[in-house]
Amino acid sequence: MTQVNLFTAGAVIIIILLIYHHLAKKYHYFLPKPIPCMKPSFLVGSSGPVLLRRQGVTTFMKTIYNSFPEANIFGMYSIVMPVYIVRDPELIKLIGVKDFDHFVDHAFVSGNSDDDGRNDTLFGNSLIALSGLKWRDMRATLSPAFTGSKMRHMFELVADCGRSMVEFFKAEEKAGKSLEYEMKATFARYGNDVIASVAFGVTVDSMRDPQNDFNVMAKKMLDFANWKILVRIAIIQILSLVSKKFNFDIVDGTLSRYFRGIITDNMERREAQGIVRNDMVDMLMKVRKGTLKHQKDEQDTKDTGFATVEESSVGKTTHSRKWTDNELIAQCFLFFLAGFDTTSNLLSWLMYELTVNPAIQDRLYEEISQIENSLLGKHLSYEALQKMSYLDMVVSEALRKWPPNVQLDRKCTKDYLLDNGTGTRFTMDKGSSVLIPVYAIHHDPKYYSNPERFDPERFSEENRSKINAGAYLPFGIGPRNCIGSRLALMQVKSIVYHLLKDFEAVSSEKTGTPLKLAKHPFLLQAENGIWVQLKSRSS
After folding, report:
1. How many CB atoms lie within 10 A of CB 379?
2. Backbone angles phi, psi at 426, to 5 degrees
3. Tens digit of each residue's pLDDT (9 = 90 or more) over 236-248
4. Which 8-state DSSP code applies to residue 479?
5. b/e map 493-515, b = 16+ CB within 10 Å
6. Are 523 and 230 in contact (CB under 8 A)?
7. Between 20 and 30 A from 251 (CA), which of 87, 337, 390, 481?
8. pTM confidence score
9. Would residue 172 be called left, alpha or beta, if left means φ above 0 and alpha means ψ between -120 and 50 degrees?
């Protein structure tokens, strides 16, 4: 071997050793901290089981949650990133609410902050990705659009989609067709219609025309099995500075232009023709004009049920920032991204639970029948929906057992002296990541007896006071909670009402009991889907 080859080989070996040393050193982060830490493996950290598809995200959440049952906080490594796992409800409330100013931002998403105007992407300008002062301003800007009063105005748009879906099933039954459906795919069509109507101001019918442009584009955008999307998400998370500099987005250019075009054309047409429609486009037009404000007589009560999260003072503050059309359009994209998959997933699990728990379904149908009789032939109203206490109990329990987000994350935005109340005190460094394993907490028998049982009685008027606020997190916690909880609950309750009023959900040949969870890296899904048969109550 020549001297040149020897030199080259030696240089390569040195570089490899330097890289190895640099990465291995990252796994020393928790050594000086007075808390336990999961043992990392090189290059995958503590996340090997989920990255290599040996475990799904829910099983993985339970595994890490139970690693140190006596600890209320411990460490793990997500690939090479050190992450604090917080498993104690009181500590969760401390981080998420009381000391929120130290944990303002999300840890695993990256968008624009106070003075960063480089990122012009839809995702980078959406509320979930914004950070710092810019997030506070956008939250305050959008908050008035999600009050109970505004939901009341939007309700008819949501209810129309539910009634249309039920009429489709009736027509299929009349034509002698099978009413056996995979729930996730079916409710995804319903969710598509609701989001198209409420967030984008367009009417589509995805049950009768599943190939409509909006539905086709939506499925492409949310195809999380597509490796290109997974790579984009990974780049945005791991290489945040690079993704900002090059305006790297989850959505590719074609999809981005399509959804931008819908909003822009809609706004221009409404401006020219003086059209007013009670939807998010109308709200954004008011934001642009500076006329969307919190009303003094408007009370943000939990008028949509137990799971509704209340808006904090952050969302009720005044703001003076002027938003660009792109920044406003990005919020419609977020409503779609956040509401489409999570709502259809929750409805899938809810229908499964009603199918395998017929006594619960029967009791819910009784309440639906009582409300229907009281309406005297009129359509379901927003006020009537809020009176349905058992429906709220059922939905609250579905959110407990099958939470839309299996985990929450926060970033420590300034050094934080943590005192866990048991004598452990240490500083969480600025830039540290925090993960809250929601799914595991929701299935901990310490907070919910017999957690695998679907039991709406947990949320009865007599029992709901026993629920620890830090151990029930379907829509997050604190000022950074889900801004659209009212809209999501209204959407779910409306379709459950309209569907069960005319149809009974029964097991089909494809319904598995119990269902086997898919080994998906970040979504809560059934391995072979959730199949349910609809049986007409009039037959």
Report:
1. 12
2. -160, 165
3. 555 455 455 555 5
4. G
5. bbbbbbbbbbbbbbebeebeeeb
6. no
7. 481
8. 0.90
9. alpha
